[in-house]
Structures are given as structure tokens and as C-alpha cells.
Amino acid sequence: MEREPLGVVGVGWVGLVTAACFAELGHEVWARDIVPEKVESLSRGEVPIHEPGLPELVAKNAERLHFTTDMGDLLERTRLLFVCVDTPPTYSGDADLSRVEAVLGELGDSNEHALVMKSTVPVGTGRSIQRRRDGVGYVANPEFLKEGTAVGDFMKPDRVVVGANDESEEYADNVEALYAPLGAEIVRTDVASAEMIKLASNAFLATKISFINEIANVSEELGADVREVARGMGLDDRIGPKFLQAGVGFGGSCFPKDVQALKQLAGNSGYHFQLLTAVVEVNELQKRRTIGKLQKHLGPLPGKEIALLGVAFKPNTDDVREATSLVLAGRLAGEGANVRAYDPVAGRKAEDMLAGASIAESALEAVDGADAVVLVTEWPEFAELDWTGEVKKRMRVPLVVDGRNFLDRDKLVAAGFTYEGIGR
User: Fold this and answer.
1) Considering Cα of 44, then 151, then 50, then 141, what sign does the dihedral take?
2) pLDDT average, residue stretch 50-56
3) Residue 264 · residue 94 · CB < 8 Å
4) Which residues, listed in sequence order, are joined to residue 9 by a DSSP beta bridge?
5) Within a domain: residue 196?
6) What total of structural domains would you count in the chain?
7) Most buried residue, 161, 215, 249, 407, by CB count within 10 Å?
8) Of the listed 39, 57, 117, 254, which one is catalytic?
9) Is 198 within the bounds of a domain?
10) What pLDDT score does 1 carry?
11) Residue 1 domain-assigned (yes or no)
12) What is the pLDDT of residues 374-400, one digit of tens each?
């Protein structure tokens, strides 16, 4: 039986991964974006974002992938429209749904199409849309992709959430069938619960990170090693080892936004979500504790040369949204330090965002003449640097603040470095 083409609205990171992976599953996909330059680039097979495996997937499925700026192409050729547009926070903390509303406006009065919402939206969005647009099909299908491993996450998911109310059950059946070849557990539920699953999942993971960072801070005061603490905790299958890596705080496009969105939703309903308030506060303070570690060893920072290794919020991505490096660069500049930053992928992309920092072309250039190195992102190449030789020779002061507990502390200390980790 011939498969119906699928539509994807919004070809950012989520949209492009979604389009390419459905094409890999054998579907013809029409993907629409409002940025002509992006569409032209993708039509030439050029992938504008850094995501391992994605360029190869786009090239492999070029005959099944079509990119356009014309919404009419999608409406004419497809019935299921996967909505993958941004929903950034507004100044009030609420989600900006203007891009979702724009999609609804372009859909017009059509009742022949169904919106499959992959964008992260507040709980109640789907029901609101269905009330205002009587007859429109609506399925909540939140994404759980991680930057750096998104292709694998799509093709081998932990679970697939499909939320629909009674009037859209037929469309939900169709969406469920699309994921059947992946063999994952399907969580079939109502729309509001599906919307909450996404926000609650990210909020819980962010809570684990803030919790272990608090344990790290206490461990520093009491002489414990947070890595050993986390290992012992993680072996309890009620807790598990994931997201128990202490560091300089979480960032990226999902955790900060989704934690704030759930906190705001609770507040709008009259409930004060005290735990999430603490999660946000701990994360912001964690990013700034690095300044105190530097001052402990260097004294006042005016005129000091500080190298930041890593700009992206995590390795294997060029995403710098809410990255710890941005906070550190701003705070260090505020303290009067001179900052040089290096990232193998995201450096130049972040040049205008790193307040007062210069961008180095290599890690060795960044550390040249430095009074301290702060490791912000655990790119593999940083572990492979000749720390005891070339790096130490180039630095003015052999001080390392390892913001991810990524480097070999014993080796660095034996070579004469002063080492500061997190919770060690």
C-alpha cells in the first residue's frame, strides 16, 4: 500500500531530525521553513546545524526529502503536519506560541489536515486549539531528542508519547502506526497528559542535575568526592546513574526553558512550585561558583588571563543557548579579566554572545599566557591535549578549574598543576 507523504513545519534541529528520520523509515517528507536561505541550503544537501549522523541521513534520503518555503505545498501534498516550530520563553516566562498560531493561520479553515505537535507547548495548548478550531485534528507527540545523539534517539526511542482526545483518535492511530517499525513502547494518552509528560520529564532531569551539584558543593566542604558519591547512588536502581554528573550547571535549549515553563504554568494556576524554584536558583549559582574558585587562587581578577575551553552547552553540538560559557564570560569580564575561548564547533558561532571574550582558533592558542584554564565543555579533544607538556609550558600559571570533572586530576597534580574540580 502506498504511504501518504508527511509534512514537517519548521526545519530547525527537531524538524530536520524528524524529517530525515521519517525519510529513513521509507516515507516521502515535505518540510517547510520560512527562511529561504535555509531551504535553499537544505535543497542542495547542506545541513546548517552540527548533529552527528544527520548530514549522512539527509544525503542518503535526498530523493524522499523535499524542502520548500510554500505552506501550500504541504497542504496540497500531505495530511499529517508535524509542527516543529520554536516556542521560546517570553519576558513573563510563558511560552511564546506565536509561531504555532502562525501555522494555524496558514492552515485556514481546512479540516482535512491534522497537527501533530512536536513543539514543546504549555499544558492546555492542544485543548485550546481544538476549542477554537472545531474539527481540526490534533495529536500531541512531544520529542525527547538529545542534542548530539538525536538521530539515535529518534530511531531507538525509550518511548513514544501519542496524546489525543476523542475527536482525533483516528489521527492518533495513524501517528502510532508511523512509529511501529521502531518497536518502542507507545504511551497512548490524552493531550494534556502528553503535554505534561514532556515538561515533567525535563524538569525531573534538571532536578537531578541541580541535586548532584548541591551534593558536590557540600562534598567540597566536607572532604568527600562527589564522583564516588554519585557512583554509589547510581547503583541503586531506584535512582540510576544518569544525570548524576556534577558540573558547572546545565544549559541548552530545553532544560532551562522547560523548567521555567512548568514553573510558570504552576504559578499561573495558583500553585507555587517550590522545588523548581530551587532547581533554577541552584543552577544559576553553580555557574557563578567558578569565579570564587579562580579568586581563591589568583586573588582579584582584573588583568588576569583566563582561557575557557568549550563554548557549546554540551559536546557534539554547536548550540550555545543558555550555555554556561556565556555566563562565565560575562562574569569574568565584569571582574576585569581578559577571556579567550575556544570550541571546536561552536566558537565562531558564539563570538557575538561571549561578552568581552576573544575567540581562539585552537585550544593551545587559548591557553597561551593564561593564568587559569576553565574547562567548560567536555569535548574529547580536551582530554587528549598534552597537559603536562605543551599546555603547562604555554600557561603563565598552571591552574585548572575542571568544570566537568573530565580531566585526570592525579596526572595534572603530579605535573605541578593546581587542580580545582567540582565536588572533589
Assistant:
1) positive
2) 96
3) yes
4) 32, 83
5) no
6) 2
7) 249
8) 254
9) no
10) 41
11) no
12) 999 999 999 999 999 999 999 999 999
